[in-house]
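> @MW can you paste both from yesterday?
MW: sure, first one:
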Amino acid sequence: MQLGRRWNVGAEAPGQLPEAIIVAVREVEAELADESVDTAGWGWTLTFLEGKPMVALDDGTSIHLDDAGHAQVTNPDDAPEED
């Protein structure tokens, strides 16, 4: 059984994460900083789904690995609009 954990935006990501996810986390954090988003008090939550790591930011952004091992970032703004 793998336990998840939480860490603050800007802090070092857990070492057990694959490098692709760590890079994606840094890219998301850099984009937020470039947009001057106040992330004070925000954090990432690491969970495991079927043994695979997934991280979610407090704003709804999530990152998981695809079948090829590449990080896939889902932004809450990317959700399809309902008719």
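MW: second:
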Amino acid sequence: MEGDPLMLAVTYFSFLVKYEPSQGERVKDKIMFLLGDHHQVVKKDMIRLLEQEQYLHKIISGAGHGINHEQPEAVHHEMFRFLAE
């Protein structure tokens, strides 16, 4: 998955599905990605893809994979801010 961020695959029910920008357009304004800055799987390509495709996202400091357990206050704040918009 290194290199071209459009080749990013998403785990979905135990199989991989290639990201298709046209499918993302339908939900882009309905979702926000919260990512931990210490996450071992989220690579720079994922963040580049989110920025390139203009997905709303937020990097939470001091969190890894268990972002909601590691930084619950920050996740709570960002979720309510997103839902209030």
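> thanks! The helical segments are 21-25, 44-52, 67-70, 72-84.
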